[in-house]
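Supplementary Text 2. Reproducibility record for the structural model of the 244-residue chain.

All settings were left at their defaults, and a single model was retained for analysis rather than an ensemble. We include the record here because the model underlies the residue-level annotations in Supplementary Table 4.
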Amino acid sequence: MRILSFGLIILFILGLGCQSKNEIITEAENDFNQSLFNDAVEKLKPILEKKQFTVDDTAALFLRSKCYKNLGILQGSLEDLNELIKLDSSKIDFIAYRADIFSELNKLNWAKKDLCKILKLDSTNYVTYNNLGLIYERLEKYDSSVLNYTKAIELYPFDARIYYNRAISLMYLDNPKKALEDLNAAIKLNPTDDDYYLEKGTCYYLLKDLDSSCLIWSQAFKLGSIDAKKNIEIYCSKSDSFEL
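Retained model, structure tokens:
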């Protein structure tokens, strides 16, 4: 009886050192939040070293996929996301993250398919319309990118970056006048982003208004744009309408 009691005490003490799955995930999340991605992956090993996953593994799998992405291990992240989507094909977070990985891997048509899946699940997701616009832009399908940016703006007209994105596609479509309207809208929403002034100056240049472009590039340079300074040095040497 004494030996049995002693054994039970030892088992109890050892049991205190065993972590539950939730405790492991919590510790790994803390590592992730501190950018200790390798440490997080190592902590998740005991619960993810298996051939088949269940719904109970989704939190750990998604966390590991995000760690892999931050470590530049995109294929590993993609494999985890494929497993996650097998387990839950309607989870928008998983599909969106996989679309982002496809985009980084330059698998643009696969990214486009995932983004379209999201819109079938939630047609009011303005972020997805914006991301789809970016994919179409990289595919050089600028009419389609403009359509998607426009839908995003209709759903949420308060994001300066989407106006900027649409302006870029409009410039590719040789419509600097319309692009200028979008850049003015972007600047109104966020007057401190040098990118918006840089492209606004470019619009004026395309509209053959060099004085205005030089003035705007000067503003962009003051906000930190090195490209604006280069434009000034190349195009504005004969203009007196700006100052560095």
